[in-house]
Each structure stands twice: as C-alpha cells, then as structure tokens.
C-alpha cells in the first residue's frame, strides 16, 4: 500500500529540515514525498533538497506552484500528482513520529478503512513544558455517521493532518482556496463520505503551535469572506444526502452556527472600526437563516440563538455590542 505524503512549503526555513527529516526517518518504506513549493521567497526549498541529498533519499518530488497560492491550492496540486493509495498531509513546520506511517498503514490494510485517525502531540513553542496530548473521543473501528456525530458535537478536532486518507475520497472534494480554516471546511465532507474510520489511540503527529499562527492572530480579513459560502456548501451536502438523518442535519447547522458565532465574535472584538468589518459581518448575516435559528433553539448553548438573531437583524448592532468586550455572563 503506497502512501503519498504532501508537504506545502512557504517561508518555513527555520523548521523545514526537521519536518523533512521526520518523513525520511519513517520506518514504512512504500511512500512518496511531494513537496509543494508555494513560491517561497526564502531558502526553504533549498534546505529541503539538502536534507534529501544528505540522506541519499530519492523518493520525492518537488512541485512548484505558478504563483504564491496558499496551502489549499498547494494541497490540491499535490493531490493531482499523487500516486499513493492513501495520502497524508504534513504541515511544513510540524514533524511526525518515525512509526506513524507504518502503524497507520497497517491499520488501514487490516481493517480496510477509508480514514485512520491518530492522536496528536500539541507542542506550544512559547511554553517550555511537556507536550499536551490531544486524544480523540472515539476509539477503534467507527462508521462514518458515528464519526460525524462526534465532530458535530465538538468532540473531535477539525485538523486534517493527523488523518491518513484513502486518496479516492478526494475525487470530488477539493480544498477551498483563499480562506482561513480550510481544514474545518473540508473535513466534514470527507468524514461524511467515508464508509469506515479507525481511531488509533496513540499520538503520532507533532503539532507545533507557534506565535503568529492563524490560531493566535486575526490575519487577513479577506480570507474570512469565503467562509459563509463554504458553510452553505456543507449544509447543502448534508441536506441532499439521503443517508443523513434529520438529527444529523440539525446538528450540522448547530455546529456551523456555533463556529460562525465564535468567528464573528473574534472579528468584532478586535476593536476595528465598523467600516473595516462591515462587509464581513454583512456576508455572515446573509448566510444565517431565521428558520435555522429556530431549529437550534433547543441546543445546549441557550445564548447562541440570541447572538445569531442580533447578527442577522443588525450587523451594526452586533459590532457595537461586541466590539470592545465579549459577553461576560
């Protein structure tokens, strides 16, 4: 069983060598490494080539994007040339445990599953302490509906890099370009398409949380504009799926609307003038439907419908209320 490892690269010269070395050090041999150069202006690609050369490693390809396009395009371009039966995505500032592919490939083969999910080491580079282990809530062989239910209840993370995917899952599913949180916007579709998943209770991926990442800053406001359209696409996919129960569809709306609330609160609490965020809030307001607010009214978070109602009726009032402080109570 061949595994394609796809590594998008852009301005990571401080970390790329460790990343590539961790892939070369895999005990599993039937792999190909696809390094996607997103027009990185630094020495990242040269350093990656140096690691391959130092190890006399030849099972790699370097693909160069036509122009700086972002991680989604880089992943899609890598998928387009991948020849593996399964695919693993590795962020270029992270590393993987030497036995990751051997252990996950063995599980995929033994159980004939579409996705294998492992636990993750979360390493906060700003805090010199023992890595935290992010554990999945599920264990062992699980059907797609059960996995999706756990995700919609926020029991599973939205990251894509600790999942080994059957490549055919991506035949009609692609990463969306020019948005933040691209993992969260594709993972529900992949998990929904999967027949079976296997949750392996062992941390095999090292995720480094660094200052300045999108998890610790607001970033480019334009990259939030496409998120409501992606959310609508996810809604539509579940609504059109005859296998999806009504409860699952409502939980999907609750999942998306909770995320929209949290995202818009992050945007409004950044203390920017209304003119700077008006286009964004208007876009998110247009996405929200009164009928969906009613559907999620009986959820655990009793304040969620109120947040959404204010945003739907008056984006300006929403900004005015939450631009300087979040609800404390």
Describe this structure in words.
The protein is of the alpha/beta class. Strands 1, 2, 3, 4, 5, 6, 7, 8, 9 and 10 form a ten-stranded mixed sheet that branches. The protein has twelve helices and ten strands. A hairpin with a 7-residue loop joins strand 6 and strand 7 (132-134). Mean pLDDT is 92; it is low at 325-329. It has helices at residues 16-24, 44-54, 71-81, 100-111, 144-152, 187-193, 227-240, 246-268, 274-287, 290-295, 304-313, 315-322, and strands spanning 3-9, 31-37, 60-64, 86-89, 95-96, 115-124, 132-134, 140-143, 163-166, 196-209. The protein is globular, with a radius of gyration of 21 Å. 41% of the residues lie in helices and 18% in strands. It has two domains: 3-214, Spore Coat Polysaccharide Biosynthesis Protein SpsA, Chain A, CATH 3.90.550.10; 218-324, no CATH class. Helix 1 (16-24) packs parallel to helix 2 and helix 9 packs across helix 12.
Return the structural class: alpha/beta
Q: How many structural domains does the protein architecture include?
A: 2
| Helix percentage range | 40-55%
Low-confidence stretches: 325-329
> How many whole angstroms does the radius of gyration measure?
21 Å
What is the strand tally? Answer: 10
At the first level of CATH, the class of the largest domain is Alpha Beta
CATH architecture of the largest domain: Alpha-Beta Complex
CATH superfamily of the largest domain: Spore Coat Polysaccharide Biosynthesis Protein SpsA, Chain A
Q: In the CATH scheme, what's the topology name of the largest domain? A: Spore Coat Polysaccharide Biosynthesis Protein SpsA, Chain A
**What is the count of DSSP helices, taking H or I runs of 4+ residues?**
12
Principal-axis shape equals globular
The major beta sheet can be summarized as: 10 strands, mixed
**Arithmetic mean of pLDDT:** 92
How far is the first residue's CA from the last residue's CA? 53 Å
Order of helices and strands: EHEHEHEEHEEEHEHEHHHHHH
Proportion of strand residues: 15-25%
InterPro entries: Glyco_trans_2-like, Nucleotide-diphossugar_trans
GO molecular function, one term: hexosyltransferase activity
Keywords: Glycosyltransferase, Transferase
Organism: Hymenobacter setariae
């Amino acid at each position: 069983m061949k595994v394609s490892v796809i590594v998008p690269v852009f301005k990571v010269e401080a970390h790329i060598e460790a990343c590539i070395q961790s892939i070369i050090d895999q005990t599993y041999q039937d792999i190909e490494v696809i390094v996607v150069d997103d027009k990185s202006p630094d020495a990242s690609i040269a350093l990656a080539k140096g690691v391959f050369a130092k190890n006399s490693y030849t099972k790699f390809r370097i693909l160069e994007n036509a122009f700086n396009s972002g991680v989604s395009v880089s992943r899609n371009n890598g998928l387009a040339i991948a020849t593996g039966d399964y695919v693993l995505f590795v962020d270029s500032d992270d590393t993987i445990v030497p036995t990751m592919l051997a252990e996950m490939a063995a599980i995929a083969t033994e159980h004939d599953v579409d996705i294998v999910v492992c636990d993750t080491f979360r390493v906060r580079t700003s805090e010199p302490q023992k890595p935290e282990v992010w554990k999945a809530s599920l264990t062992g062989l699980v059907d797609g509906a059960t996995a999706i239910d756990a995700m919609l209840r926020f029991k599973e993370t939205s990251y894509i890099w600790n999942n080994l995917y059957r490549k055919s899952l991506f035949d009609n599913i692609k990463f969306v370009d020019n948005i933040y949180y691209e993992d969260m916007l594709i993972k529900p579709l992949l998990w929904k398409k999967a027949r079976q998943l296997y949750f392996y209770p062992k941390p095999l991926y090292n995720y480094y949380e660094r200052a300045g990442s999108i998890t610790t800053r607001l970033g480019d406001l334009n990259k939030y504009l496409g998120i409501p359209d992606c959310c609508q696409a996810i809604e539509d996919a579940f609504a059109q799926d005859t296998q999806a129960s009504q409860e699952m569809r409502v939980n999907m709306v609750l999942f998306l609307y909770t995320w929209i609330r949290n995202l818009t609160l992050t945007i409004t609490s950044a203390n920017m003038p209304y003119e700077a965020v008006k286009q964004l809030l208007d876009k998110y307001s247009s996405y929200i439907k009164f009928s969906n607010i009613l559907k999620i009214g009986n959820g655990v978070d009793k304040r969620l419908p109120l947040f959404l109602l204010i945003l739907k009726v008056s984006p300006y009032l929403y900004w005015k209320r939450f631009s300087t402080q979040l609800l404390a109570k």
